[in-house]
Amino acid sequence: MTPPSAAPRPYDEAAAQAARERVAGLATPAGALGRLGDLAAWVAGCQGCCPPRPLDDVACVVFAGDHGVAAHGTSAYPSEITALMVATLRSGRAGVSALAGAHGVDVRVEDVSVGRPSEPLHLTDATTRERAGAALARGRAVAAEEGHRDLLVPGEVGIGNTTPAAALVGALLGLPAHEVTGAGTGLDTEGVVRKTAVVQTGLDRCREVTDPVDLLAALGGEDLAAMTGFLLGAAEVRVPVLLDGVVSLACALVADAIAPGTGRWWAAGHRSTEPAQQVALDELGLVPVLDAGMRLGEGSGAVAAVPLLRGAVALLRDTATLAEVLGGTGG
């Protein structure tokens, strides 16, 4: 059985609709705000108020873990890099650290399974169901601890983690490996062929697995399970989430399978270069805020999009309405 999950508190569609109506009434040409108006309405629905409150308190939580499948040539880098990147994150010198510092975002690192790699998913289950369940609970607990925030960003670091992410997306959407497997950290053509074969073998092995937690155990690993729990927990404490790249989108698909409707609490921060991310975005009906060709991971693409989300809220809060302008009130 799937571990029990609290149903997400209702997304406030009335507040979102009020925000859309306010956007339509601003002293701007019709449609001039583009997607910023949609984003502001989404934040209003998550917060349950219009206009929404500023997104002052934002945190990126980076889930770290190693993956045994990397030993089979599915990454351009060795697994030892994961621990080095965790140390770099904790020293505040990683790519996401620089972006977070520039944009006033806190960074928290959760070492879930660094130095304790999951099993190669194409040979056997990545982890046990019990460990996957414990990791889900850990992610939920992290979300509860960060429940005072205005916005959360899930990040990840772990050599080889785009392989289980691609496998999860393929399994959940019934897609073959060649439609969900990409170059990850920069594999050459031969490496992508090798990685695709590994993903397909994992999909074939798990063809009869349908329970989302069983899929996390079979194909994902503990770090992906923890991120999935984090997404579920964020919805349970009513904190909106700005998703990042392919790993967070794979976890989002799993979370939505565990608790349908959870996806109302998510927006997509950026479009990565991984094909599995795009099909997951389409499945969840999400349009990324940024499309800058990034593939760094760490939550960096979503953190880079935070200023646009803050700007969308500011526009809705502080722009005069047409009625105010015509009435000469000045707001």
Automatic annotation (TrEMBL):
Pfam families given in the database record = DBI_PRT
Annotated keywords? Cobalamin biosynthesis, Glycosyltransferase, Transferase
The pathway it acts in is: Nucleoside biosynthesis; alpha-ribazole biosynthesis; alpha-ribazole from 5,6-dimethylbenzimidazole: step 1/2
The broad enzyme category this protein falls into is transferase
Enzyme Commission numbers on file: 2.4.2.21
Catalytic activity, as annotated: 5,6-dimethylbenzimidazole + nicotinate beta-D-ribonucleotide = alpha-ribazole 5'-phosphate + nicotinate + H(+)
Give the top-rank taxon of the lineage listed in the UniProt record for this protein: Bacteria
Q: What is this protein called?
A: Nicotinate-nucleotide--dimethylbenzimidazole phosphoribosyltransferase
The taxonomy runs: Bacteria, Bacillati, Actinomycetota, Actinomycetes, Propionibacteriales
